[in-house]
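RECORD TYPE: inverse folding
INPUT: structure tokens
STRUCTURE:
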């Protein structure tokens, strides 16, 4: 159980690092409410995912961990948790999808898009998912991007598409 608490503390630490690295996040935008409805929605959905994930993680530890067990290998460990992700075809289907989203697409998207938007340390959003949840990391990224947009820290410029003649 100590490892679950440590995980949560590390999750909060990464969030604090994101806030520290991006000081505009701590300032009220020049117009509108302090927190927009969209920012609040992203953060509430992310928080719900984080909390619900921890409910299931605590249940896993209670059901599978052995007293004095190793949190990395053995029953009730991280390795055992990963094995259980693939207990049946339905779980395997959902788990492989989650792994591709969390471990491949999320880091690529947040790093590439974050750099374009001027978000400092965009790789931290992936790191946050290691301690919170995939949905929380995505929601946090969207909330940060929206907050910076409200500060006009980046601009959306539509790219000019060349006229294409369609022959019929």
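DESIGNED SEQUENCE:
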């Amino acid at each position: 159980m100590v490892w679950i608490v440590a995980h949560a503390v590390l999750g909060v630490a990464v969030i604090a690092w994101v806030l520290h690295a991006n000081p505009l996040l701590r300032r009220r935008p020049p117009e509108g409410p302090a927190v927009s409805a969209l920012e609040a929605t992203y953060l509430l959905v992310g928080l719900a995912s984080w909390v619900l994930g921890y409910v299931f993680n605590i249940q896993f530890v209670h059901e599978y961990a052995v007293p004095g067990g190793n949190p990395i290998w053995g029953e009730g460990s991280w390795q055992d948790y990963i094995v259980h992700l693939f207990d049946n075809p339905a779980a395997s289907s959902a788990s492989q999808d989650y792994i591709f989203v969390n471990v491949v697409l999320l880091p690529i998207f947040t790093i590439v898009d974050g750099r374009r938007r001027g978000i400092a340390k965009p790789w931290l959003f992936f790191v946050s998912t290691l301690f919170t949840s995939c949905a929380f990391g995505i929601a946090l990224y969207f909330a940060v991007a929206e907050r910076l947009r409200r500060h006009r820290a980046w601009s959306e410029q539509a790219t000019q598409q060349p006229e294409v003649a369609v022959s019929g």
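NOTES: Residues 4 and 57 are 8 Å apart (CA to CA).
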